[in-house]
Amino acid sequence: MTTPALLTRMIMAGQGKEPADLVIRNVGMLDVITGTVTVTDIAIVADRIVGTHARYEGKTEIDGTGRFAVPGFIDTHLHIESSLVTPLEFDRCVLPHGVTTVLCDPHEIANVLGAEGIRYFLDSAERTIMDVRVNLSSCVPATPFETAGAQLEVDDLLPFRKHPKVLGLAEMMNFPGVLNADPGILAKLVAFQDSHIDGHAPLLLGQGLNGYLAAGIRTDHEATSAAEAREKLAKGMAILIREGSVSKDLQALAEILDENTSAFVALCTDDRNPLDIAEEGHLDSSIRRLIAMGRPLHHVYRAAGHSAARIFGLKDRGLLGPGWRADIAIVDSLEDCRVSDVIAAGRIVTPELFETRGTVAPVGLTSVKAKPVTAEAFITEPKPGQNRVPVIGVKPGLILTFREEASLASTESGLQPDLTADVIKVAVIERHGKNGNIGRSFVTGFGLKRGAIASSVGHDSHNITVVGATDEDMAAAVNRLIELGGGFVTADGGKVTAELALPIAGLMSLKSFEEVAHDLHHLRDAAKALDCVLPEPFLQVAFLALPVIPHLKMTDRGLFDVDKFDFVS
Hints:
Residues 399-565 form the Adenine deaminase C-terminal domain. The protein is of the alpha/beta class. The protein folds into two domains: 72-316, Alpha-Beta Barrel (TIM Barrel), CATH 3.20.20.140; 375-567, no CATH class. Helix 11 crosses helix 16 (513-529). The longest helix has 17 residues, at 513-529.
């Protein structure tokens, strides 16, 4: 809280009449509006910048000689759950990469635990060093075509509406519900007309897009081509360039970021795990890649901070100047965006700083209620007269899937995988203890020659998804996952070969992000040993069950055609 005494101190320190709390001395400060770099001191009192373009004295000083100061980065859309660690561990993992603000949608945990999951995230957000803002999950469940663990109507969201960490309504995934004026969807849209409403409209164009935007929706992170993004920009929609662990759209969308559009473009990760963060970085990775691709440097940094703040109504951050929030990334090189120091709300980020936050009790430790299965659970019977079957087609780096077909042999054990054609089984097992459904089909693109991969991360309802070459290995992987209370498991020859327990709602680990990264290394190696060709197989498995992303998806109720928004007959 800014008191008269504190505000007086800020004013006096800005004039150089008394020392600042913190001074970054002799640093090259990037102006993201003009692109100029000025060597200057930056003076900070409490959480606010009070002076630039001058010489200052500070109680604490950082030597910025030869380095550059840029506004702290803002991840405009992500699910912290997909980092596989708690919000407090995510804070410790990502803040050192210069990400000082994140706008999260606790959609994943909300689909498992409902309001309890949202409350857990808000409690965590009040303790993190980075500024974690929450958009309230708009689509729980995402569709009526799968079994979720919870259901949130507008009256369930309104008690959180005035929480200081809440921005608005999260990604409106059910765009058919918007276009058809579904009463439940309309109630949520009406309740949040005076705040931000986040979009989610893959491949939606033309008059359908117009109708969607007429609901007051302003942003989209689902554009996967420059042409799609340009139409959305032309209609007043801000585009969030996404580069996650599975959804990698930066290469396709980079060309849209220029001096004319940068005010309407921001960056996001959506879903990124700690192994990728350790190996590649977070938004800092997107920034250096965009610059390397020839995007204008200060416009890239503008999109990463200032534009993101303006798009989402965060009026106090995104620039380095007196009166602005002291969220600052200090980089060794503007081109390489290698972050060497971070200031978050005026605090120097150090390992010791994270020890001051306290703890938040875990939730959802008994959320996996599925019963053990046998190999017979995965027998897929042919339909009368069926010669060819629909197959989900997976491609690396895309959560879009494709509709393909295959001719499969049939035995007394039902339709059989065709490993020579890279066609294996996929199943989704309801895990919330509601009906015990099992949906079964086939998928191509994994490359498995044997074994199975199972996951309790299964966007968005988070049932158990398993792919495999044999029914026995699928059963072994699923049963071990149930014993763990959620997680990732690989199996081969009827035995578990690697695992990662995710007991918090079947989504997040109780371990540190370093330990999770280590376990993910082991899991990746185990998947490669099955001849898996996907670089990120576990999240790719998780997105097989997402029936709001085209084109063909698997749910616990059966194979789903997203284009028709109905089950495959």
